[in-house]
Design goal:
The protein has about 80 residues and is mainly α. The protein has a domain of about 40 residues. The protein contains three helices and no strands. The radius of gyration is 19 Å and the shape is extended.
Length: about 80
């Protein structure tokens, strides 16, 4: 029987606790695809990866959709 030699890294106490939960359903194909990706890139913490991936997408879109004083067409003139 193998023993897990990895030590847990505790989150700093100044970070807010994550108390909100999101659940989603995936098809067998989608889940298989995610599992393959996690295995290929040796990602051990699926929850952290999912959270960071979703938030990165949201932040990127929010930055692109940020309101400006002039429209894109006017700025390219």
């Amino acid at each position: 029987m193998k023993t897990n030699n990895r030590k847990r890294v505790k989150a700093p106490t100044n970070l807010p606790k994550r108390q909100q939960r999101i659940a989603c359903s995936m098809s067998e194909e989608e889940m298989h695809l995610v599992e393959r990706y996690l295995d290929k890139y040796k990602i051990g913490n699926k929850s952290r990866w999912m959270r960071e991936t979703v938030l990165q997408f949201v932040y990127k879109n929010m930055e692109e959709d940020y309101p400006t004083l002039f429209g894109e067409h006017d700025m390219r003139r």
